[in-house]
Amino acid sequence: MTQPLRITDTVLRDAHQSLLATRMSTEDMLPITDELDAIGFHSLEMWGGASFDSAMRFLGEDPWERLRALRAALPNTQLQMLLRGQNLVGYRHYPDDVVEAFVRCAARNGIDIFRIFDALNDPRNMAYAMELVKREGKHAQATISYTLSPVHSIEKFVALASELAEMGADSICIKDMAGLLAPYATYELVAALKAKLEIPIQLHTHYTSGMASMVLLKASEADVDVADTAISSMALLTSQAPTESLVSALRGTPRDTGLDLTRLANVARYFAKIRKRYQRFESGIAGVDVNVLEFQIPGGMLSNLISQLREQGAEDKYMEVLEEVPRVRKEMGYPPLVTPSSQIVGTQATLNVVLGARYKVVPEEVKNYFRGFYGRPPAEIDPQIRKKVIGEEQPIEGRPADLLDPGLQKAREEIGDLAASEEDIVSYALFPQVARAFLQRRRQGIERKELLAAAIAAQLLRQNERSQLSAAEGSALSAWRMSGRGARGVIGTGV
User: Which 3 state secondary structure label does DSSP give 205?
Assistant: First the structure.
């Protein structure tokens, strides 16, 4: 019996988040969508993660408009997003009413598959998002964030996956965000999950350590259902394994993907050209970085860490920061290094090194982690470090979101008429400062377009009036002017 391996390509989200600091614009995605849509991917991962705030913050784009545009351009392909559980696409927990509105809007605008994870693998932080996704009739893919530590094991990962399946997960994803999976450990984990669960298993890994293609091959031998890859011109380094390589490796086998290599090559050529436009955002990592096996820093975190150190003129501290990360991680109870825990650990490690004194300065996000506001760590937090960070405060024991007041109505009132839709209100609830600035720029841009359109319309009218018009033509033109449709008509033409 054949069991084709299905492929999720990440080129529209995680690939450029890992390689190009999430800077690829929607404008550079749309021209190749016809080709992408014809390939027959299981899904395209194209939204969520850091792409949401980066669109507003750096690109001047509405992330909801990106979703709508890609949904319209990819009618035959499932669209997939990365959802950080109760953190949604942000870096802190949001109230349940904000989570509900976000999931409703994302489903309404075109997301089919929601990959839901929690940075601490705390199921309490995934439960409500999973419930909402299923309520919307969409696919809830619950995720185990893979990591290595003295407190993590295959048995514990299988137990977590079983709990998530009992909570209603439609599939399970192994999220190897740092490229830590080794080939034979992958086979063992996938085989254990397949033996225990009846729902599909998907594997997401990164090429950082150089093992990703071997990992995917062993996973296919263990009957993994879906594998994440990236088109070759946006693969390798801290991104995913190349799509074409895996497709070629499995040709003629029972796991043959059936994907067309010619079409894939066309897509690869397109993104090879596009990537050149974003050269300034490249991480500078030249190839395989086996340091990740020791420091466990995920691809997206590596590229952003280098960028931040470069901006601070502290790029020479790179290796010192890498060495500090596992120390801080141990003190914090061995959290998997994935957003937002990767940023929390990475920020504190960077401050410890750059300032030359450990925990001399502690950001509020780090303090909140020690207070339990992000969830339950996999292991006990170092009590001496906790006391240094939050003194005699006692960490909370329950689900962090239970402590939060509703936030949607407050966001609606604060943003006022700058919001033109429920999606705008949600954007503001997630990122108040970034969204307000974006919405203000958008309004100013619309006003400028209206003024330009009115000016063009007036010029056209003057030209027409100077020409020899018949009485009927003059009457019609006058009626058109009085109706006010002239300016709107020009806007409608795209001027």
Answer: strand
